[in-house]
Amino acid sequence: MTLLSTIWLLPLFTFIYLHGVLPIEATHHVYRNLESLSSDEYSTNQPYRTGYHFQPPKNWINDPNGPLIYKGVYHLFYQYNPKGAQWGNIVWAHSISTDLVNWTPLDPAIFPSQPSDINGCWSGSTTILHGNKPAILYTGINKLNHQVQNLAYPKNVSDPFLREWIKSPENPVMEPTTENKINSSSFRDPTTGWLGKDGKWRVLIGSKRRTTGIAILYKSKDFVNWDKSKHPLHSAKGTGMWECPDFFPVLKNGINGVDTSLNDNSVRHVLKVSLDDHKHDYYLIGSYEEEKDRFVPDKGFEEVEIEYVFRYDYGKYYASKTFFDYEKNRRVLLGWANESSSVDDDIKKGWSGIHAIPRAIWLHKSGKQLVQWPVVEIEKLRVNHVNWPTKLLRGDELLQINGVTASQADVEISFEVNENDIGEAEVLEKWTDPQILCSQKGTSVKSGLGPFGLLAFASKGLQEFTSVFFRIFKFQNKNLVLFCSDQSRSSLNKHNDLTSYGTFLDVDVLHEKLSLRTLIDHSVVESFGGEGKACITARVYPTLAINDKAFIYAFNNGTTDIKITSLSAWSMKKAQLNGKL
């Protein structure tokens, strides 16, 4: 099959308050009486529900909150609406796992019950205190609809499942006042605490002052009584509200993770903020000057344009949170992938929001950026391995990847550009925002080198497909790799968000592997380019390419041949996302 005869001639589309300490009531069961869906119902009635990306049986979810490992059990708390598929009525739902793949839901950990959280229990973090005692700091919306910070502890620290939590009688432990001049509507999402050399705990709270984003720093000797620092850990003009901040060390050398409190010559520090005005997660790498309690980035928001600051993910990915997995010596990243479907469609299907696959995260050997890769446990879902020998992917060629379940798959492919062909790269006259460039030069636009990559969720006649591809430019006498996820043809339902995403990828195409790994899961295309240097998560809802009507292809729409040096693909078994104890 040739591309010209298929893709390129088609049109481009384009509660009750109790005074004092309050345990969680055992009768409050978010997951009880929910409809269980059989395999047939999943495939027929719910074609967009995921097979191995985390989501509850129904209703709205958003931010992952306070992930941790405790007594060998992984805990995932998350923002959840038990009453519907739109945001509202937010509680901290709670699921547990032994492998970050299969999950069992428990009763909600935290829900509105005190004056300090009666109008909502928003995002926050967990910290392991002295004596291996977990604590949760979270944002509550009080009776005045002000954002305040609250504290909770496990009722029984010997319970590895941490099924019940007790709220502190001291709540709120941090709040806006006229003295501290904090905006009561922009004061949320406390971080995991870290212990300074002075023996004091420190946490950050996201905030803003006018258009300046701020990471407010608080200190405490006992994790109960908190003092606001005179200056923020970091701030940046013109960035707007900083939601869900995260602050953690990464080793200068190696892929292992380290404890959040470590600060010595072996580490750099990462400050991640979720920018409310942009709906993306951005991160800065720099140094933490503990004596001054300041973070000094190598390059800050104010030194470069916002589109050139690194992101965790260039697609649908927000409100992320990391934790240190001390049992496997790694730092694990979790994030929310919101829907691209309309609100009406979300209500009809009865759910909204998923979480991306947990990712190991570390500092690249260059020291310039982070690397992310799906946790290795996800690979135990792989079955039906398909392996290709080296193949030449000619210009205008489309090769179907047979033998795997195309709607629930894991595909790894590597490309090689012949050194003699690098002169065929299109010249980029001026620097352009890569996301705009991916929209202007999508799958159907030919060039000398690219686009080439994968078509996921492709229908039989290619009326629908989601493409993930590379395109190589020559810019200022250097080779420049564009990495794109093109949703413009992902669905015939034009009520969906069909935005294309992309970034430039720091890869030397003549000396490094140009690799692509893509996790495909019914309504998710989660891609890792350049061995995890850049990630793009897309949410798509085909009307034709559903279940066994979906296909996967390797493609090249450039005029120059590209070599596939390796291709491995697997069907993915269904994870147990709503198991039972």
From TrEMBL:
Residues 377-571 form the Glycosyl hydrolase family 32 C-terminal domain. This is Acid beta-fructofuranosidase. The keyword Chaperone does not apply. It catalyses: Hydrolysis of terminal non-reducing beta-D-fructofuranoside residues in beta-D-fructofuranosides. Residues 1-23 form the signal peptide. It is found in: Membrane; Vacuole lumen. GO terms for biological process: carbohydrate metabolic process. It comes from Pisum sativum. Pathway: Glycan biosynthesis; sucrose metabolism. One of its GO terms (molecular function) is beta-fructofuranosidase activity. Gene3D superfamilies: Exo-inulinase, domain 1, Glycosyl hydrolase domain, family 43. PANTHER family: BETA-FRUCTOFURANOSIDASE, INSOLUBLE ISOENZYME CWINV1-RELATED. Belongs to the glycosyl hydrolase 32 family. Keywords: Glycosidase, Hydrolase, Membrane, Signal, Signal-anchor, Transmembrane, Transmembrane helix, Vacuole. Pfam families: Glyco_hydro_32C, Glyco_hydro_32N. It is a single-pass type II membrane protein. It comes from the Eukaryota. GO terms for cellular component: membrane; vacuolar lumen.
